[in-house]
Amino acid sequence: MTAPTTTGLAQELAAAVDELRRVTVRVQANGAAASGAGVLWDPAGDDTRALVITNAHVATRAQATIRLSDGAVARARVVARDRKRDLAALELDLELEPHTPAGFAHVRDAAPLRVGELVIAVGHPGDMSGAAALGIVHTVGGDRAGGTPQWVRADLRLAPGFSGGPLADASGRLIGINTMMHGGLALAVPVTLVESWLRRAQAPAAS
Amino acid sequence: MTALLESLSNELAAAVESGGRAVVAIHARRRIPASGVHWRSGVIVATNHTITRDDNITVTLPDGTTASVSLAGRDPSTDLAVLKLAGQNLATANLRLDPSPSVGEFVIALGRPGPRLTASWGVVSSVAGAWRTWQGAEIDSLLRLDLSIYDGFSGGPLIDATGRVLGINTSGLARGTPVTIPVATVERTVGELLERGAIRRAYLGIGTQPVRVPPSLARRLELTNTLGLLIASVEPGGPADRDGVLLGDVLLELGGAEVSDPTDVLVQLGGDRVGRPIAARVIRGGQVKTLQVTPGERPESRAA
Fold it and tell me: Per residue in B129-179, pLDDT tens?
């Protein structure tokens, strides 16, 4: 038998995961035993600086070692951390090439999430690097009517080591930062909250 | 290029949206609400175990508004309950009676444990024939899912990739393991609950356990079946007690059918057997004896 749709899907999924892996790093806080994941983020949109966004519970120290997907290792320092949001931003010391193969995450614009749409997570559970998980959006909307959702909730299995890594849609665009499992659901900080948090947090870091 | 991946994602979201138009939240217990499906116009199907009160039941509709409903009937044996909703213009579920689900088919479980619709996805992991719940109801087929069920999913629908309903999900029939009650079973139960408010089942008031008849006795009595059911309890004043069934009898046949498992007794106790004598062949004191027993109507939460 031939299965053009399934074969095509498998190829596209593999390609999308490959793309995501390029913007996913391993974050090892200096002196910490466990490591997590992080997302390469272009703060200015001009490749002049490179940030790594991860969870505050991953970047627990002022310094961290970052391993890029191509194996390159860089040092990074925390430029913003918010334990309540569980977000941290680190600035890479490495001078990235203007057209570095690592690239930066593509952020999904304001298009609202739909319940049931596909989501892809990439992280580094245990000894594995760049592991992928596939799921769907479990629910949308705030905890209170009209409120901004605090989490993207996904029907998806995350293992420790996915923390801080990307949650992306079917087009590979970033929709959240994977943070924890709760009640059987994967919770990710919505990318819109990451952006607004960065705008506030970055001002002192830029000086 | 992610054209196929995006199509799959859009189709899944569209199925959820379409199926979700008939999914409501049921407020009939403490803590979190459960789910229900607008099955036919004005008729909502929910799970019995998530409805802990008979009055003051409300539902949250997909548009976020709240409406009062009345309990039309409930059936603990299938874990289904039927609620009536008046004066609302709400989409009804698109039911898929045929074809039956296939192993490996994509499925989505929907719920509304509050104002928001929730979804989880997976595949049908096995499809088997009819089975009986511990309270004796026949469920047309056993659907096992490779899928996570979250709090408040009970009463929600299992839908296919096009949003059509394959059944009602419940965690209340198999010790917390999610089970889908197929559309055919729901249809039958809803019809009877709307008509009578309850599902009629016959019962004898006995507890049994399988035993093997000693070979020497089986030879002497010329039994073809060496398995039987030991009468391990007799409800005082119950139908079997009234008709002379004794503790320690070994039941061999009921209604002309050999019995070797407690569910074989349930098979003989459909609602139409209430009040109609049935032959029970037993071993008593080393002899085979045939008794006539007349099943009564089973009170709630009794098995055989």
Answer: 988 887 778 888 989 899 998 989 999 999 999 999 999 999 988 887 888
- Burial class for A156, CB neighbours closer than 10 Å (0-12, 13-18, 19+): buried
Q: Which two tokens stand for residue A120?
A: 């892809």
Closest CA to B47 of B87, B75, B13: B75
Cβ–Cβ below 8 Å for B119 and A115:
yes
Contact between B46 and B83 (Cβ < 8 Å): yes
Residue A159, classified by CB atoms within 10 Å of its CB into exposed (0-12), middle (13-18) or buried (19+), is middle
**Angle, CA of B176, B113 and B147, to the nearest 5°:** 45
> Cα dist. B64→A40, A67, B15, B33, B89 in Å?
39, 47, 20, 14, 13
Q: Is B274 exposed, middle or buried (CB count within 10 Å of its CB: 0-12, 13-18, 19+)?
A: middle
Query: Which tokens is B34 given?
Result: 């459960």
**Chain A residue numbers touching B118 (CB-CB < 8 A):** 115, 138-139
Which residues share a beta bridge with A29?
A64
**pTM of structure:** 0.84
